[in-house]
Amino acid sequence: MPGIKPLAVPADVIYTYDGSFDGFLCCVFESVYAGEVPVDILREEDSPLTLMEVCPVVTDLTKAERVRASIPLKISARALELVTTVFCSCLAQKELRLLEFLLRGYREGGKLCFRLGDAVMAPLLSAEKHLLGEAHLLKGFVRFADVGGALAAVITPKNYILPFIARHFVLRYHNEQFMIFDKTNKAALVYQNGKAEILRIDHVTVPEISEREARYQALWKQFYNTIAIEGRENPRCRMTHMPKRYWENMLEVSDLVHPAAD
Amino acid sequence: MDLMEKLTILADSAKYDAACTSSGADRPGKTVTAGCCHSFSADGRCISLLKVLMTNQCIYDCKYCVNRASNDCRRTAFTPEELAELTIEFYRRNYIEGLFLSSGVVRSPDYTMEQMIGALQLLRYRHNFWGYIHAKTIPGASPELVRRLGLLADRLSINVELPSEQSLRRLAPHKKREAIFSPMKQICQEAGQNRQELAVYKKAEKFAPAGQATQMIIGASPETDYQIITLAQAMYGKYALKRVFYSAYIPAVEDALLPALDVKPPLLREHRLYQADWLMRQYGFGAEEILSPETPNFNPYLDPKCNWAVGHMQQFPVDVNTAALEELLRVPGIGPTSARRIVAARRNGRLGLSELKNIGVVLKRAQYFIRTSDWPTSARPDRETTVRALIDPKVYSFGMEQLSLFEETPGLRPLPTARDVKSMAEAVEETVLCLASSL
């Protein structure tokens, strides 16, 4: 914005943080109080080999809370929603883009969120759309297997969508026990005894399936293969609606991805 | 016969029903209100419901149907328990959102409906299944049974089958027009009454909360596209239908009254019908704006919205920064989402081309019909360029064969058909010149 002094100016420094949302909020705190916009904000484990000055930002919950409270106050509730959602997305350099958004937001106020065509807003909105779209698709594409009375599923989404599908599955299967393991983000949504939580897990071994389970899987595959009309085969249309990267976890089409492996 | 075989036969006989939507049932947790696709079959259609027939035995002999009485095929029926078990186990594994139950007519329409009601009652009240249920009403069933079915299902539908009474008489001699439209009318009235009951008492029993839909077969009878979309518009208005589905006829049985077995299904025509249907439901178009008695068939090369825009160039360009929402919706390249975003975004500053691009407007088409501060009217390209940009790329993917399935429009310089040209590129080239000269 011409005429208004920006909160922070570009500086030759890279921030690193612990990867948590609170950690990111502390980077925002650091940036505002140092009056500098870093070249990039990275997770500690992706720390670069560079000659540039690296500033490790320590997560401090008091600072994080101050930043969190400031967003609805100085920008708008929608801005906080957007920031939390986009932080879970797979947008490249999401931390830096969110920081740029917040720095502008602190200056311009809630109006910024309505500038849908703005160069800072547009990528955030499309990242949000991508994440919510993927969350919606996975509400349908998750395939559970019954393992000893509990339901288990594995997913490999691009975005970290577990928090966005948790409510849906908890309501749907509130009398069941289930687990959805997110292989990409190494996390699992576990629901048992009426309580749901998201745990950090690296690896899950799914036990052998029972005969009864195998029967239903076979019935489902048979139904899937029968319901298509031969005269209208349209592989491109199927891929548009159901991108191939989801197929490996969907039992009716997983054979099409690795035909040789079976 | 084991369950696997039954499922194969009864899913195979149900696959020609187009509808598989699961939207509109407001039961948080049990169904996704906006609808949810669980998979997509090899033909690209969404699978959100377990789509099966209760039985494929049928006393009717509708010429176009695979389950017609005179067709020699294996017949079977689900028991209510089998159907309930399949539905629940599939739902539990998140394969499906619910059940789409249709049926061949056994003994009489009333008897068939009672069988379906029995199965749904078992599912709802014994097994406590509150997922989505779409049930087909059997034409000619008594009103009391339609009512009972509506109290169990989320959506009801009754197929009009063919777009005119003459065709119905010819191809489905057992189905009377009256037997189709009277339940449709009844469902519409019951739903209206139910809304009042629900307003008074929140926990009143819901009657088909996701409304009703219908389906008709395209390409098995000689109706024009204009007749078809006029019928659809009349049904949307009169019976408050949620959806009309169009199903390109796939020759499955040999009959002198039907297209030969080697005729391809008119998929591009079906696609144009759905586009027109969307224009009527979401964009505020009337059927008589999209087509007219003089031009009763779709232009295969342009989608109906572009076709309308090309014929109404005097209404363009519209100024994106001032035009009303209804005007924006008529611009090719601007859909309902981007139109609403434009209206929201322009409150905070004028929009230029780069903002429109970020908002999601398809500038490839829209640029010829809009005006912004940085895109003045004087920069208009010639007609040929405009028309070229509007040609629907889908024409290429559907292929030459589909073009020959369109009727020619009398009175206009005929558009090139598969017979006159050697390649698709040539056909498109011809069309561009032809359309540009008529602008």
UniProtKB/TrEMBL annotation, chain A:
Q: Which domain of life is it from?
A: Bacteria
InterPro entries from the entry? DNA_repair_put, DUF4130
Write one Pfam family the protein is assigned to: DUF4130
Q: Which residues form the DUF4130 domain?
A: 93-252
Under NCBIfam families, the record lists: SAM_7_link_chp
What's the name of the protein? Answer: Probable DNA metabolism protein
> From which organism does this entry originate?
Sporobacter termitidis DSM 10068
Automatic annotation (TrEMBL), chain B:
Please give the InterPro entries that the UniProt record associates with this protein.
Answer: Aldolase_TIM, DNA_rSAM_put, Endo/Exo/Phosphatase_dom_1, Hlx-hairpin-Hlx_DNA-bd_motif, rSAM, rSAM_sf, RuvA_2-like
Q: What GO annotations for molecular function exist for this entry?
A: catalytic activity; DNA binding; iron-sulfur cluster binding; metal ion binding
Q: Where is the Helix-hairpin-helix DNA-binding motif class domain?
A: 326-345
Tagged with keyword Nucleus = no
Which SMART domains does the record associate with it? HhH1
* Annotated keywords: Iron, Iron-sulfur, Metal-binding, S-adenosyl-L-methionine
The Gene Ontology biological process annotation of the record reads: DNA repair
Pfam families for this protein: HHH_3 (PF12836), Radical_SAM (PF04055)
Keyword ATP-binding among record annotations: no
The entry's protein name is Putative DNA modification/repair radical SAM protein
Q: Which organism is it from?
A: Sporobacter termitidis DSM 10068
Q: What is the lineage of its organism?
A: Bacteria, Bacillati, Bacillota, Clostridia, Eubacteriales
